[in-house]
Amino acid sequence: MRIARDLPSLRAELAQLGRLALVPTMGALHEGHLSLVAAARREAEAVAASIFVNPLQFGPNEDLARYPRDEAGDLAKLEAAGCDLVWMPSVEVMYPPGRATEIEVKGPAEGWEGTARPGHFRGVATVCAKLFNQTGAAVALFGEKDWQQFQVIRRMVRDLDLPIRIIGCPTVREADGLALSSRNRFLSAEERAKAPLLYATLQRVAESLRAGMPAAEAIPAAKAELARQDFTVDYLALVEPETLRETDALPGRLIAAARLGSVRLLDNIAAP
Question: Is 33 labeled as catalytic in the residue annotation?
Fold first, then answer.
């Protein structure tokens, strides 16, 4: 497995590889990330993963310094998964002094995470565009757990005519339904026991909608139940899957963000 930490090294390594599939990550890898590497192997001759904790997508009061990092463990996992190349730029390599360009996506970036985390999707769009250009990947794979992020990246690629195909892969979950996330390690034992309730609640809302209950009834009841279980709900909504506009029509996507202790959990499911 090759490792590159600066652009000349990256370009030298890429010259030795064929058609490339990219798995962008911020490290602290889990089985969800490794499932993307496995899917990437089916899409291209070579697989690259990036590891870069992107400061541009963290707000001033968010957990950039606390975000988990495990370089040695991540590299061992990627090598075992059959990754061909790991791109690990420093902040100075990714954002050289004097940089003056960022990418602002509207549409699906507005509302929800866009409201809760101002500037977050500007950081996501900017770093992803740079990763796509730096690697020249033909395909990039993202987990569907961050549904709004997935749609923002798809919109950016279409709008900028970037020559890359974006593939979404199903959310990987623990046996009790909790969506895998690098931040789950910060849950206390009591919080970890409660965390799967977010997914279970989304499932119950989907069943209620399928049975004909209006979203205006099902969703407030679900929020109240989560609050009783010590969740602080940022949002729980039925939205159009691509635009992220709120809707009361099916099919749609149920999206949710809720804080449990110090950990902010995101999840979503289809609502057919």
Answer: yes
Residue 246 pLDDT > 90, yes or no?
A: yes
Q: What is the pLDDT of residue 61?
A: 83
Confidence of residue 36 (pLDDT cuts 50, 70, 90): very high
Spot the catalytic one: 33, 77, 117, 223. Answer: 33
pLDDT, position 63: 84
Q: Check if the beta carbon of residue 107 is closer than 8 Å to that of residue 155.
A: yes
Domains and CATH numbers, the chain: 2-169 (3.40.50.620), 182-267 (3.30.1300.10)
